[in-house]
């Protein structure tokens, strides 16, 4: 399936920004089951300084603000050909060892909630079946809801809230999978919705490393493994390492953000 994506993020500031830098993890790469036909990034109110590959083999663009800006806009557009591999991505690549993905982070540190969730799981006959059961178990215990109070919850906070968005579901799955001995990681990317072209935000899911298969994706929020509607962009130990845009700026003015995203079949 060929997917066409147009993604624009605009930041507004109520006073001029003397200096700012942003890291963009917005360039998908050609990988197993995914071929990037073309991809462009344009910046208004700043400029692309350098492009490099991070430790997880993500492509990162560093953007500087033009001094004194009150608005900066980042626009990504391109086409990606995706094959349905039933969520199987394959062997580990990049510059870090596989065991690193068994390490907890501040967002994925397991506590009583994760331990109780894992204890209540009925395991399958195979590792793959167990991980699918884990995904379904998380969705049943912590249903999907956009009524989330914060965008940077830990797994224990999300479980306590009793509902979650895709980012939280990915973190819960990662934490639980690591508790069960599976390397696991966070994935940020795009999902073509069946019922609309315009979307509110990009998507997130998780991957676990299964012996004999390699990395396999699990989208807890939608109850499936990624198919030809999914475009992988960045991976990391958690959201903070795979965030589409992160950065810093000088100045005390308030910031607001607008996102325009279209994902459709070409």
| SSE pattern | EEEEEEEHHHHEEEEEHEE
| Total number of strands | 14
Helix content estimate: 10-25%
As for the CATH topology of the largest domain, it is: C8orf32 fold
Biggest sheet record:
5 strands, antiparallel
Q: What is the approximate shape?
A: globular
CATH architecture of the largest domain: Roll
Computed CA radius of gyration, to the nearest angstrom: 19 Å
Sheet/helix structural class: alpha+beta
Poorly predicted regions: none
Total helical segments: 5
Spatial strand arrangement across the major sheet: 3-6-1-14-9
- Tally of distinct domains: 2
CATH class of the largest domain: Alpha Beta
Distance between the termini: 8 Å
Would you kindly provide a written description of the structure presented here, covering whatever features stand out?
The protein is α+β, with helices and mostly antiparallel strands and 266 residues long. The chain folds into two domains: 2-82 and 245-265, Immunoglobulin-like (Sandwich); 88-242, C8orf32 fold, CATH 3.10.620. The protein is built from five helices and 14 strands. The chain has helices at residues 112-119, 127-141, 155-161, 166-179, 239-242, and strands at 2-17, 20-27, 34-44, 46-53, 59-65, 69-82, 88-90, 184-191, 198-199, 203-210, 214-218, 230-236, 245-249, 255-265. It has a five-stranded antiparallel sheet, with no helix packed on it. A five-stranded antiparallel sheet has the order 7-11-10-8-12. It has a four-stranded antiparallel sheet with strand order 4-5-2-13, with no helix packed on it. Helix 2 crosses helix 4. It is globular and about 60 Å long. The model has no long low-confidence stretch (mean pLDDT 94).
């Amino acid at each position: 399936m060929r997917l066409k994506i147009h993604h624009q993020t605009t930041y507004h500031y109520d006073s001029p920004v003397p200096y700012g830098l942003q890291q963009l993890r917005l360039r998908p790469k050609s990988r197993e089951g995914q071929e990037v036909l073309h991809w462009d990034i344009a910046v208004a109110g700043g400029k692309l300084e350098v492009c490099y590959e991070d430790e997880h083999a993500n492509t990162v663009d560093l953007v500087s603000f033009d001094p004194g800006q009150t608005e900066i806009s980042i626009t990504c557009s391109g086409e990606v050909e995706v094959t349905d591999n039933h969520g199987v991505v394959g062997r580990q690549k990049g510059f870090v060892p596989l065991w690193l993905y068994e390490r907890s982070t501040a967002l994925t540190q397991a506590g009583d909630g994760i331990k109780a969730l894992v204890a209540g799981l009925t395991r399958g006959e195979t590792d793959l079946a167990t991980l699918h059961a884990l995904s379904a178990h998380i969705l049943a215990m912590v249903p999907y809801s956009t009524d989330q109070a914060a965008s940077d919850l830990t797994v224990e906070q999300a479980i306590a809230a009793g509902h979650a968005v895709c980012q939280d579901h990915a973190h819960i799955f990662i934490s639980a999978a690591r508790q069960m001995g599976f390397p696991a990681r966070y994935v940020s990317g795009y999902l073509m919705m069946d019922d609309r072209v315009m979307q509110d935000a990009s998507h997130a899911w998780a991957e676990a490393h299964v012996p004999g298969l390699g990395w396999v994706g699990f989208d807890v929020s939608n109850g499936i493994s990624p198919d030809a509607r999914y475009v992988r962009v960045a991976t990391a130990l958690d959201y903070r390492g795979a965030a589409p845009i992160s950065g810093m700026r000088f100045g005390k003015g308030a910031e607001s953000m607008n996102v325009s995203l279209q994902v459709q079949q070409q």
